[in-house]
TrEMBL record:
A family per Pfam: HTH_92
Originating organism: Chromobacterium aquaticum
CDD domains assigned to the protein according to its UniProt record, in alphabetical order: HTH_XRE (cd00093)
UniProt cross-references to InterPro entries, sorted A to Z: Cro/C1-type_HTH, HTH_RsaL-like, Lambda_DNA-bd_dom_sf
Gene3D superfamilies to which the protein is assigned, alphabetical: lambda repressor-like DNA-binding domains
Domain HTH cro/C1-type span(s) in chain numbering: 11-65
Protein's recorded name: Helix-turn-helix domain-containing protein
Length: 107
């Protein structure tokens, strides 16, 4: 799933994860009632879609992500692109070996 791509059905994602609305939506700072409206078809703002993608689709624990992490990634991309690509490929291979169905998008 790409950055700011439309989330086709948040209810389906929530149910696959086995979470109730309160558990699912509170992890991204949305009230249960707001989440219910999004699940019923109300237009979801881009920031909410992106948080949903990061937390529930990509399974990223946002409490562990720091600005420095992004700066390191950008520095590595700019100064050592071959190393960045090699590391990215190694991570992809590891993830695919773990569950066989991981989709990592390129940026």
């Amino acid at each position: 799933m790409k950055l700011f791509e439309k989330i086709p059905n948040p209810r389906e994602i929530r149910r696959k994860l086995g979470l109730n609305q309160q558990e699912f939506w509170s992890r991204i700072g949305v009230t249960q009632s707001g989440g219910s409206r999004y699940e019923s078809g109300r237009n979801m703002p881009k920031p909410v879609r992106e948080l949903l993608r990061l937390v529930h689709v990509e399974q990223i624990d946002l409490s562990k992500v720091r600005r420095e992490d992004f700066e390191i990634v950008e520095y590595l991309k700019e100064t050592h692109p071959d190393l960045y690509k090699s590391l990215r490929k190694a991570v992809r291979t590891k993830l695919e070996a773990q569950d066989g169905s991981v989709e990592v998008t390129a940026n």
